[in-house]
């Protein structure tokens, strides 16, 4: 009896995944919990483990292919069982891996209804507002695709990214008008826009963007075409979505980090010897941010459409870059950690990121983001908000500069802290007060500061 391996649901709103790499081949023997494949989704890259010990009978999905949650990916013949072909009677007795949701694979029956002389497909028995994944919505917006005209092939008739990509390539069906109704072209066009929930001006703008995107980029001799990976596409979509939806505002404060530099200098060697990893400046800045968030809890908020969510827990999202991608793992309950505890969490998440071992839980639940651009020598930056969070702060490079203190010039170690904020949630007053609080806390570090 063979075991079916289905595409798992690697996240609450994830509806599809891309096979980044198969880690096994047909005929290989695998033990229970061995990794079978690396799967990319909108949220995370994860390994799919085997829940049985056995031999790989068949691999059905190619590397690079994107399929819906619940799609059959491979067969594993368990230990002690005879191999069966896909068409043999035994296949009907196959069991599914327990970590994936059970699906029937049956698509919902579709019907057509006429609205304002326009016919459009609707799902039989569907109620309320149709929900789409962020990747589907962003891709549709980029290409001016009306999702109400796209036929979904996912579970329960949901529209997947593959459906939208097909619509981009082949186009979507035009609205069908009831025969016998005498409407001129302008009236039909206006009615089509109304049914889609758009104004004609909206659609003209979307068409202009689509046409601009469709223009091929000239490729010169020696130019290299780099395929867009799922991770890079996700990053691009989220950044575009954040900039389009959140009205960004920006501010920066100068901070005198001289005493912090001295504190780290006298502590780093002993810390490295004792703990086994380096003590960087970042944990000190995160600790200052966390303490300021306690003073101004509105900064620890998220935009949620018709309401603002002010979070009780303080979970700091940390931007971590690899050679070809950017990940944002989360330090949970950061306000309950010492500087050492924050440093240890950063080290652990950085190692997991570089090894490609981040889990869904590692990436979930962030309430405020800190970005350490100073490691690249940057002294001024304007970060993009990690939506739906209300703000993100960049810590720039610490550099020695001449400053005026008590009407005298002194050389001090200075750092710029840059904040991008969602103006739907936050205003300049509270953000200015928050940044001044962070500044005071960083400048207050000194010989008496406890790392533990």
Describe this structure in words.
By secondary structure, this protein is of the alpha+beta class. β17 (320-321) and β18 (326-327) form a beta hairpin. It has helices at 134-143, 161-170, 185-196, 200-214, 230-245, 258-275, 282-295, 339-354, 360-363, 428-443; strands at residues 2-6, 16-22, 29-30, 35-40, 45-49, 54-59, 66-68, 72-78, 95-96, 110-115, 118-123, 176-177, 248-256, 301-303, 308-310, 316-318, 320-321, 326-327, 330-331, 368-371, 391-395, 399-405, 408-422. α1 packs parallel to α2 (161-170), α1 (134-143) packs across α5 and α7 packs across α8 (339-354). The protein has ten helices and 23 strands. Strands 13, 16, 19, 20, 21, 22 and 23 form a seven-stranded mixed beta sheet that branches. It has a five-stranded mixed beta sheet with strand order 3-6-8-1-9, with no helix packed on it. The protein has a four-stranded antiparallel beta sheet with strand order 5-4-2-7, with no helix packed on it. Helix content is 29%, strand content 25%. The chain folds into three domains: 2-96, OB fold (Dihydrolipoamide Acetyltransferase, E2P); 110-179 and 191-210, E3-binding domain (Dihydrolipoamide Transferase, Irregular); 248-443, Chloramphenicol Acetyltransferase, CATH 3.30.559.
CATH class assignment of the largest domain: Alpha Beta
Structural class: alpha+beta
Any idea what the shape is? globular
CATH architecture assignment of the largest domain? 2-Layer Sandwich
User: Radius of gyration, Cα only, in angstroms?
Assistant: 27 Å
Distance between the termini: 56 Å
Largest sheet: 7 strands, mixed
């Amino acid at each position: 009896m063979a075991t079916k391996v289905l595409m798992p649901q690697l996240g609450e709103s994830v509806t599809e995944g891309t096979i980044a790499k198969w880690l096994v081949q047909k005929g290989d023997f695998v033990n229970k919990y061995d990794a079978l494949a690396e799967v990319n989704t909108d949220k995370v890259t994860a390994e799919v483990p085997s829940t049985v010990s056995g031999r790989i009978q068949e691999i059905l999905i190619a590397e690079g292919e994107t399929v819906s949650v619940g799609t059959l990916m491979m067969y594993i013949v368990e230990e002690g069982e005879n191999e069966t072909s896909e068409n043999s009677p035994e296949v009907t007795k196959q069991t599914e891996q327990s970590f994936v949701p059970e699906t029937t694979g049956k698509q919902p029956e579709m019907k057509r209804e006429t609205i304002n002389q326009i016919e459009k497909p609707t799902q039989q028995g569907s109620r309320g507002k149709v929900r789409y994944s962020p990747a589907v919505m962003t891709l549709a917006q980029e290409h001016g695709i009306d999702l109400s005209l796209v036929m979904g092939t996912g579970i329960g008739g949901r529209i997947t990214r593959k459906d939208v990509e097909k619509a981009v390539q082949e186009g979507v069906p035009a609205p069908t008008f009831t025969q016998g109704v005498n409407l001129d072209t302008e009236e039909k066009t206006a009615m089509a826009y109304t049914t889609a929930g758009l104004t004609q001006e909206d659609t003209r703008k979307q068409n202009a963007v689509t046409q601009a995107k469709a223009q091929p980029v000239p490729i010169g001799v020696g130019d290299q075409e780099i395929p867009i990976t799922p991770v890079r596409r996700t990053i691009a979509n989220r950044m575009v979505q954040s900039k389009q939806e959140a009205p960004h505002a920006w501010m920066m404060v100068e901070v005198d980090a001289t005493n912090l530099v001295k504190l780290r200098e006298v502590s780093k060697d002993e810390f490295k010897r004792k703990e086994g990893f380096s003590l960087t400046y970042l944990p000190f800045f995160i600790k200052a941010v966390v303490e300021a968030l306690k003073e101004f809890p509105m900064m620890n908020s998220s935009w949620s459409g018709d309401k603002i969510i002010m979070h009780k827990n303080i979970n700091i999202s940390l931007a971590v870059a690899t050679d070809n991608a950017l990940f944002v793992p989360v330090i949970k309950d950061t306000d309950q950690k010492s500087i050492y505890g924050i440093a240890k969490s950063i080290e652990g998440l950085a190692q997991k990121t570089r090894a490609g071992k981040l889990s869904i839980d590692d990436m979930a639940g962030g309430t405020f983001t800190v970005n350490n651009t100073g490691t690249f020598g940057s002294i001024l930056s304007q970060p993009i908000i990690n939506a739906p969070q209300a703000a993100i702060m960049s810590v720039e490079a610490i550099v020695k500069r001449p400053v005026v203190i008590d009407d005298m010039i002194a050389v001090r170690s200075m750092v710029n802290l840059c904040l991008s904020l969602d103006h739907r949630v936050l205003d300049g007053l509270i953000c200015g007060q928050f940044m001044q609080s962070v500044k005071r806390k960083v400048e207050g570090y000194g010989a008496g500061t406890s790392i533990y």
